[in-house]
Amino acid sequence: MSNKKSFWNFFQSLGRSFMLPIALLAISGILLGIGAAFRGAAIRELMPWIGNPILQQIFNYMFIIGLFTFKNLPVLFGIAIPLGLVKEDKEIAALSGFVGYAVMNVAINFYLTQSGQLADAETMRYQGQSMIMGVQSIETGVLGGIISGIIVYKLHKKFSNIKLPLAFAFFEGVRFVPIITLFTMSLVGIFVIPSIWPVFSGMINGLGHLISVSGAFGAFLLGASERLLIPFGLHHILTALVRFTAIGGEAVINGESVTGALNIFYQLYAAHEPITPELSRLLVQGRLPSFFFGLPAMALAVYHTAKPENKPFIKGLLISGVVTAIVGGITEPLEFLFLFIAPPLYVFHAFMTGLSYMTLGLLGVTVGEAGDIIGFILYGPLQGLSNRWYLIIVVGLVWFAVYYIVFKWAILKYDLKTPGREDKTLSEGDVSTDISEMSNFTAKKMLDGLGGADNIVTIDNCFTRLRLELKDASIVQEDLIKEGGGISVVKLGDTTVQIIIGPQVQAMRKKIEKLMV
Which of 152, 275, 301, 462 is catalytic? Predict the structure, then answer.
């Protein structure tokens, strides 16, 4: 049982560590999108003033800065994973993460050179090799960074407190971590990667082939599975694999081998090459009918079915949740309003999300990486009509009607206690008008609900939820936690708890940490 919990906790933490590079990706994607959009000939013909040399330099700058993240994703994951997983000495973990990934590729280059397998420039991409941080190596992509990051984390965990003989005392403790990383990852680069990568790469390509031959149904599986993994906090792992590994596809663009649906999308976009529906259907455009239309319809159904005296108190909560979903692409504050009250409705929501992925793919929509209103405008209307962005609105209106009818019917038929239908009458203090400030974020109540500072082993957060390891999760008081600003409490075991809060979760974590001192 202990091993099972440790395994589960590890993957919870791994998913959390993905947040650092993914957050950077979101901003980089906007910079890249704006820069590429306003460098194009089509937009300059439509708006000649965009061709101003100074403006073009600004857009070129945004384009180059935005492209940086996508060119260096593997090393970013190699750094972010040990940084996110370790509990102490995070700066040492980050340094070791960089050392580990870099030396692994240097060692791979040494192996390829000594074994006579170093490909020339013309055939490099066909032999699975590429230039990585200035060194020709085996193209392991983001998965190589993930593997490197996990190994470095394990080394940090094992050796960060090591004691050495007095003559070598200067190198003991955390100073030993980058040293052991240097030697270990060099051996991984020489002996492990060249041996296992051809087999591993074949397995990944096989999975990617399965998704690709599944056609539109593969997109359905992706969209539905991502939503179903949300309650467990593991959805980031699935999306990372599709976005950044061969599962999401492989392509050669401008003579460069590119792997992963998101990487391919941005490289094609930057090169002003057409985006295919086969690629775009694996990206977040598939969420838009559910995010922009379905969940707002759910919120409207919740409002219409609330008790008349409670409607004024839940209106702000629902509106704020809708705005968060549309503007920020963050839907958990709305999803967790009904996830635990009516799990079948959440399964319905997951099904509809998967169906929207599949439907937009079948309709040939190629908006691509547009999971919020900014992305939709940037990659949709600003690109003209060829990407069929308008069909998202058509499908969305159908989704709005379906969601509203299903949710209103289910709430009334089964008397679901959605917000505003509770047995007690709400008051001004029960529900904040801003979901990010629900119950004024009373950190003391939240801490008391968790069993006090002595019950907390570790506390961290992702975009919308606190992630905690407790000594005993059975003493958690959900009522107090919700009074303190929690939308929902997810117990993943005897010691693992997650609390859904919303975009201001980091502020809550810091307040709790101050109270724990």
Answer: 462
